Amino acid sequence: MAALLTAFLWPARAAAEPVGLPMVVLFDTPAGELPETEIRENIARELHRPVRTASEPDLPTLTVARGTGGEIVVRYHPPSSELERKVALPARGEHVPLLVALVAKNLVSSEARDLVAELGTGKSAAPTAPAPSIREPGSRFYLRLSLGGGYSAATYSANSGSTATTRGAAYEVGLSGADMGLHVAVGSMGPSGLAFGVEGGGGLFLLHQHGSLGSTRMNATLPVHLGGFVDYYPQARGPLHLQGGLAAAYVRFAYSGDDRLPSGVATAIDVNPLYGAMAYVGAGYDLGPHGIGGFGLFARTQFGFFADGNANLVPITLRLGLSMAWL
Hints:
Elements: H1 2-16, E1 23-28, H2 36-47, E2 51-52, E3 61-66, E4 72-77, E5 83-87, H3 96-108, H4 110-119, E6 140-158, E7 171-189, E8 194-211, E9 214-232, E10 240-256, E11 274-286, E12 294-307, E13 311-326
Parallel strand pairs: 1-2, 1-3
Antiparallel strand pairs: 3-4, 4-5, 6-7, 6-13, 7-8, 8-9, 9-10, 10-11, 11-12, 12-13
Helix pairs in contact: 2-3
């Protein structure tokens, strides 16, 4: 009776293959052609099973090979059948371990084995369910809007020829205050996870100067820039990306003095526009459901140099904000 009960229950047990049952993972490829250690680790993680490296007849076996066209071939050998799936080799090599693990998970699933049973064959061609894949960004349109605020510190210098000098003497003052800015980036993203293109935008510095010349306030310091940008997603599909940009820029002052300024120093900050360049480096983190794109956060450090031949402004800005990216 016990033997009959065991024989009756065994097929159901084999079909369910409870969590924890070891799995043999073998490779039918030349040594070093595929990252075998990483593939086994990913399979163990996805299937929640220990992985064995040597063949054992009583255990289900996964065999990973390369097809004649360079594709990856994964074969699953449960006790009574064989399943096979072919998938194209990913563009980025670091995606191979996870891709193979997802294919293995699909093959081991009860849905795939039930399909084989319904077909009534001991062997099966590739299941009709779509192959799992990693979202690989191809060459595509890329649009990013960024709005943020922060803090700026700047040095303003005037030489003896500037209308900002007092009694013909050159001087230098420190400025600091709140900052905000809007950036619009338009470009394309390639399969490597690198996006690049054209970026433009403007900002607002609310800078104040305190020192030996008294207190000077610039109600609005308006920088405008146009240049290039790069966004690099190291994992190609993950939310973290590194940012950088370089642009030609223009600054115009809206100046307001202070009655505490000594007589004759009311023009301590020259209102003439300055021209120069700005650059930034930073990082972003996308919160969209697909890893890349959607709403996100960013942090940047921005540098600039603006001059008109008689005066120059050198600001450094720390900025945090929100972004929205479309792919």
